[in-house]
Amino acid sequence: MISFSISRFPSTSPSFSSQPSATVTESFRLDLYTTSSNTPSHSFEHKVPSDVKVGNFTRKSGRRVMGMNPIEIGDGGFGKNKKKGKEKIYWVCSNCGYTAGQWWGVCRSCTVAGTMKEFHESKTSEVHSKVNGFMVLEEDGVGSWLPQQQGELRPLRLIDINRGLNHQHWRIPLSGSFGNEVSRVLGGGLVPGSLNLVGGDPGVGKSTLLLQIAAMISEGGNDGEVYPVVYVSGEESVEQIGNRADRLMIESDIYVYSSNDIEDILKKVRDISPRALVVDSIQTVYLKGIMGSPGGIIQVKECTSALLRFAKTTNIPVLLIGHVNKSGDIAGPRVLEHIVDVVLYMEGEKCSSHRMLRAVKNRFGSTDELGIFEMSHSGLQAVSNASEMFLSEQHLDSEILAGMAVAVIMDGSRTFLIEIQALCLSGSTGSRQVNGIHASRADMIISVLIKQAGLRLRENAVYLNVVSGFILTETAGDLAVAASICSSFLELPIPNDIAFIGEIGLGGELRMVPRMEKRIHTVAKLGYRMCVVPKAAEKALGTESLENMKVVGCRNLKDVINTVFPKLVKRS
C-alpha cells in the first residue's frame, strides 16, 4: 500500500534569476510512503513565486492551492496530464444556425420551435484543425485554405485605401438592356471579390439568369475584350449546360465544369484564374472532412465560408444559386445570408412569363431597386416599359367597364403604373375579398368611403384585385383603390387616360406621398390626359408644363367624386 502527503512552506530563494533576491516563493513537496517504513521512499519538490495565480487561487493569499495537474504514479514523470479525445455534442438550429450546448425546444435566437438538430464533433479530429471553410489548397497541395499571409497584413489608413468601390468604372460592367436591368439591382455592376447569392422558386429561371450573366461578363462589357468565366454545376452535366447555352445562343469563353467537391472546384478555378465564378448550387457542393451531407447546415456554412475567403483573396466575384424552402426563404442556416455580400431574390408566377429580380441585401448598393424581365424561348429579356405588364390591354370598349383605376407607385427608383380592379355587388352579405392588397388597408379605405364619402357599401360585397399579381404595399395606391370602388358602386367607368396618386387619411383627406414630382412626370411621359393628386401636390408643381397632361388637385374623397364622375356623366 502506498500513501502520500503534500507539504507547503514559504521560503526565500534566489533561483529565479529574473526576480529580486527577496522574492518569496512557496515550495510544494510530495512524499511517498510505504506501509513498511515511516521514511518517505520518494520526494518531489516544486517551487512557485508567491504572487503567481494557479487555478482559481493566488499563492499570495495563503489558501489551499487548486488547479494543479493530476499526479500519475509509475510513468516516470510528475504532474502529467493525459487528455483523451472526447466526442463533443451540440445542437444547431436549422432555421438560423444558432449553436447551443444543450437541446432547446424553441431556438433561443429565432424563437422557432422544433428546429434544434443534434450534431457530433470529435475534439481530436484533424479536419477542424486544418479545414475550417476559410482555407483553400495551395498550388503544391500542401498547407491550408487560402493562406492568411499574416506577415504582409497591417492596418491601413482610410485615406490610403482605394475608394473606387462606389465608382462605376471600378465595377465589372454589364452592357445591353439585360445588363442594365441586372446592374440596376446590383447598384451599378458586379463588384470584384464579392460573394453574391441568388435565390428563387424552382423553375423560376435562376440558372438561366446566371448563365446569361456569365456570358455577359465573359464578353467583356464595353471594352470588347474576352475574359474566361467558370460555370460550375453540381446538379447538371456539362452536356446539359451546353444544351441550355445553345438554346440561349451563348457563344462565349465560358469554362463549364460539373463537380460537387468544393476543394476540387477551387483548385481548378485557381488554375484558370477567371474573371468570375458561378456555382449552381450551394446546396449541392460539399467540403471533405466536414460532417453532414451536401445541403446540410454545417456543409452549407463551411462551403460558403470557403467561397467567401476565395473571393476576397483572389478578387474574383462569385455568384451562387440558393434553393428556397416552402416558406420562401433560402434553404440552409440563416447565417448563410449573413456571410454573403449580396442576396438577390428572383420572383415570378407560374402562369406569367414576367420575372422580377430584387435585392434584399446589398453591401455595395441600394436594396430598393427592382429588375423586370420576361422569360422567352431565348432566355430572359429586359422589359423596357415596366408599366405594360401591370396594365390591361387598351380595348376599344374598355371605357364602358366600370371599376378600374390606374395607380402610380414606386419600387426603388422605378415608377410603375398598375391597374386596380373593383367589383361591388348589392344585396350580398357585405363580404370583402382582396387580392394583391393588404386586407386591413382595404377595410380602412372602404370604411372611409362609407363614413366620409357617403357611399352605401354596408350591404355590398366588395372584391378588389391588382392586375398581374402585383402586391400593393405603399400608400400611394390608396386613391386608385378608392376610385375603382366608387366607379364600380356608381357604375360609372373611368377612362384609361386618367391616373390617381395619393394616400387617404381616416378623415377622407388626401395626403402627399414621397417623390410626387417624379411620379407625375412619368405619367405625363406615358401619354395620360389627367392625373388626380392631393391639393398640396398641385400647389408644389405650380405652373410647370407636363406635356399636355392636366394635374387635378383634390382635398378629400368628396372632391374626387365631384370632380371626376360628373364629367363622365355628361360625356355619357
Automatic annotation (TrEMBL):
Location of the region described as Disordered in the Swiss-Prot/TrEMBL record: 1-21
Pfam families: AAA_25, ChlI, Zn_ribbon_LapB
PROSITE patterns hit by this protein: RECA_2 (PS50162)
GO molecular function, one term: damaged DNA binding
Matching InterPro entries: AAA+_ATPase, DNA_repair_RadA, P-loop_NTPase, RecA_ATP-bd, Ribosomal_Su5_D2-typ_SF, Ribsml_uS5_D2-typ_fold_subgr, Rubredoxin_2
Domain RecA family profile, first and last residues per copy: 171-324
Bilayer-spanning residue ranges: none
Entry-linked Gene3D superfamilies: 3.30.230.10, P-loop containing nucleotide triphosphate hydrolases
GO-annotated biological processes: recombinational repair
Keywords, alphabetical: ATP-binding, DNA damage, DNA repair, DNA-binding, Hydrolase, Metal-binding, Nucleotide-binding, Stress response, Zinc, Zinc-finger
NCBIfam families, A to Z: sms
Full protein name: Putative DNA repair protein RadA
Organism for this UniProt entry: Lupinus albus
